Amino acid sequence: MYDTISPEESTIERLTRRIKARIKPIVLRLAHFAFRVLRKSRARHFARNIAFTCLPFKARFRLTVWFRHFFNHGALDRHFVFFCGPFVKAHLDWILHGPFTRRHADEVAFYLLLAGYRTEALTVFRGVTQQKSRGVQGVDPFGNGYSMDLLTQIHTLNWSKLAGSSPQLRTFVRLMLEHRNFQYEERIFDGRVEAEQVSPDVLAAEYIPYFFRDRDIVDRLMRDLGLRDINGVIGRLEEGGHQWEQLPERTIDRELAFDVYLFYAYRHLLLRTYHFGEGDLVPLVYTRCMDTQRRLRRSLPSPSRELKRELDRIGTELSNVRLLSPDWSALIGHNGHLNVHLMMRKMGWWSGQPVLLAYNERIANKPFLSLFSDICPTLTLGDEGVSPAVWHELASLTPFLGDSHQAFQFKDGHSVYWNDAGSMALQQWERENRGFPLRDIYDARLRVDDRVETLYQSLRQKWGLGPDDWFVCLHMRDAEARGETLGTGESIRSATIGNYLDTVRFITDQGGWVIRMGGRRAPPLPEMPRVVDYARCEDQVPEMDIHLMRRARMFIGTTSGFAYVATSFGIPTAMVNALSSVGLLWSKDTRFSLKPVHTRDGRLLSLSDVTSETWRWTFPTYETVQAAGLTVSESSADEILETTREVLDLSSGAPPVIKPVDDAWEKCVNIPGFFGSSRPSRYFLEKYSASLLNRS
Hints:
By secondary structure, the protein is of the alpha/beta class. The protein contains 34 helices and 15 strands. It is globular, with a radius of gyration of 30 Å. InterPro entries: Glycosyl_04372.
């Protein structure tokens, strides 16, 4: 085979190129051999010291960069900082604009970071033009103080090159989307907790100065949220020698970068305040977050040509995009939220073109999520035809275009926790009889492709169901299936099997079957006739998870994400062991029985209490419940049984024997639409009527 040679190439040039091509692999092999020999020799320290002492700056710089590039090893890093760091400033023009940097952009950026030149490192990242770059082991833009500098600039990067060449930046974007971009700050805060300088559940007024490293950000957050440093945290930190950080003065468009930083700070506080008992701050935090986003949108970057083509395919402009992060697809409950979020748009609660970003391997249930493709353009990274460059470019615009999964702002500027808005939206949707969009899409697809129905019929035969047998889907939220430790965190919403067994027997005595749903790690059910422990069954596949729900006569669930599949399909539902700080997306054919919550003095919290700002923010975790002096119990066997009996009666198709409770109970609920369109089960409400219907 002959080399391809351009007509303009001279004989000398051709010969030189061929010699270089043949010598290079030999030189590399010799270099690797020398490195292996030298690293075992005591002379390595002498050789390294002589090189850095005698060589001029440019030679030292090249040597360090080449060494890391070829050997992917950091043996020269400390020598670079000591011998080269003080002289970087004098040679910046050569570093930033020379061909050497273009060939080794990853390594040069890394060493600029080591020398403290954060803004210049960003300049190198933005200027990367190589088609191929393996990235550098050890470059950690997301785990150090530099991470927020970079995060304020990622919307300026050339993702058409970087999406394929820099695994570090791809990881960086992923961590941002997963709300893990403050790792550096979290490590420092955790260190203070371990040193007993601060409590892990400290309130926001103290958490902000302890957590955030930028003094300008701290001052802005405290001012805009109306918080006062009454305990003198800032003064104590400064007296102790605390070194505040700030965005470098040379940062390009520093005011814009500051607002990007501020957006992520507010986004972080949305989660922090909810999980640590300060959910009452969520509306104000989100209002300030949206104020920041509106300022950012005035400086929205122009899309790349590739992104512009994708937007043209969707039929929208970049300024009209409402970006939905992978949060909306990662959990099946969040898919249910997405369903209601799109209902809100249909009813005019918000406008714009939704675009959902998803990770191929981080989708709770792909068949269920696929239903949204008809009503919400979805870009799944890893799917054929989805450009990684376009995907990451859109993700980098989260501060400018992102829709929060934690909160919602109405057109009048009023903000609430997202679930509170979602429950009100579902109530309006059902009041207007708008139907079940996902169910309609699912049924239409089933008429075209009935393979899942064929599988379902074969499984019925395998499990022993007769042609006319009906069944109920049962889902219990258990700590084991979610990898939680019982008695900590969100396992406060979990329940044990024992109190469900009477209900299982009741259903089977009526001629029905019970199909238990859930994760494969769920604890096993006891052997019982006409019961299928599908959660632990070898037949479990994502398509059947959804199809079983579609074919079920009713569903027994709790405050877990899987319940929203039933809501989306309009399946009559008994919600038991329910506990929530936020609004619930429960449809009109749902009856509920809450977990009883008692105060220290034994008083049962009323419906008014559990929907009040005083008490509801104590429910997210075991720790917040205990801090409030509350005790949470599971629904009793009779409450589960009677709630199920009422829904089974409701699902019969005949006029119900058990009359639903009237609307009087809603007067005791402090948050409009908190329970969606559902009602308490008659048995539950009558059993605790003396306590539940008290007004607080």
